[in-house]
Amino acid sequence: MAFASGLLKARRSTAIHHTRGAFARAATKSLCIAAACAAAFGASSAVNAAELGKVGLGLPLLTSPFWQSYNNYLGAYAKQDGIDILAPVNSNNDPAQQITDMNNMINLGAKGIVVGPIDSAAISRALGNAAQKDVKVVAVDVAPTQGNVAMVVRADNRAYGEQACKYIGEHVKSGKVVQIMGDLASVNGRDRSEAFRACLKNYPNLSLLEIPAAWKGDVAASALDSLLTANPDVKGIYMQAGGVYLSPTLQTLRRKQLLVPAGDPKHIVIVSNDGIPQEFEAIRKGEIDATVSQPADLYAKYGLYYIKAALEGKTFKPGKTDHDSTIIQLQSGILEDQLPAPLVTKKNVDDKNLWGNTVK
């Protein structure tokens, strides 16, 4: 998941902001799965919005530029696809509140819910209630460990950790590397952490230091400050979520006079995750070296596509899709559409196809 610092203590519901055509275009392709193709992707359906019913939107938090952008994309794609949505609900990174929020959406008449789970295990309670009420659910960004969902829309988070590791391994020949981890109660935090750790074993001249920061920027900054005091010779840093860790990390390095631009022998190689505009600007300045662009636009686009398909009674099978992704079956039996997430460096940071370059 992509998260932000300074989590809000008060829960708030937020209305979707409709964009003026900058984010979306009509999706008219067909989704081909294994040897067979599903019904035409995004094609006009005999079932209109009124017959489908209302769709609830559950946001894990809204203090991150990533989730703010995702929220805006939801509005654009819902309008484009004629989906009748309830006002999005922000659970403020509180798993218990998210369960309450989902139950409230059902009570408000939602027939389908698109939600970004905060805790992979805790969400099962809300999924159980939804199943009893015959409410379809699509999970975005995080896969539940159990429960009934029509689809998980997510990128390969193990690939995030591997890409970050390989970049650092190729640019740091020896020394200490810090991994600022996410919440290990989330499958995203576990996948990124385990993959980075496993990959780093291929670089025997690199030693690993870890900070369990639970997607909290203040926790990351405090721990990094102490760590750098004891280890001023750190050569690389992997931040698992730029939306939450970028600013605190750069501020900490600047305060310790360790924020040296790329190209300088004293530069600390930094790789992030998210693909937010702030990371792109940091890459252009030479403050960080790379980020993995987690597709906020595609999360919204396909999250809504799959909930609409579920409400229309459509099902899918594992296999390649026509949008450069693969549907896999998880150990829980849940299907997951693994969307592409490219590595962004100074070479391609200005690529107009990157969602981070389409928002202000």
Short description:
The protein has ten helices and 17 strands. It is α/β, with parallel strands linked by helices. It has a nine-stranded mixed β-sheet, sandwiched between helices. A six-stranded mixed β-sheet has the order 10-9-11-12-13-17, sandwiched between helices. Strands 2-3 form a two-stranded antiparallel ribbon.
Question: How would you describe what is shown here?
Answer:
- The chain has 360 residues and is α/β, with parallel strands linked by helices.
- The protein folds into two domains: 12-155 and 295-341, Response regulator (Rossmann fold); 157-293, Rossmann fold (3-Layer(aba) Sandwich), CATH 3.40.50.
- It is built from ten helices and 17 strands.
- A nine-stranded mixed sheet has the order 1-5-4-6-7-8-16-15-14, with helices on both faces. A six-stranded mixed sheet has the order 10-9-11-12-13-17, with helices on both faces. It has a two-stranded antiparallel sheet with strand order 2-3.
- Helix 8 links the parallel strand 11 (234-239) and strand 12.
- Belongs to the bacterial solute-binding protein 2 family.
- It is found in: Cell envelope.
* Rg measurement, Å: 20 Å
| Shape category | elongated
Task: Give the N-to-C terminal Cα separation.
Answer: 21 Å
Structural class: alpha/beta
Q: Give the helix tally.
A: 10
What would the average pLDDT be, to the nearest integer?
88
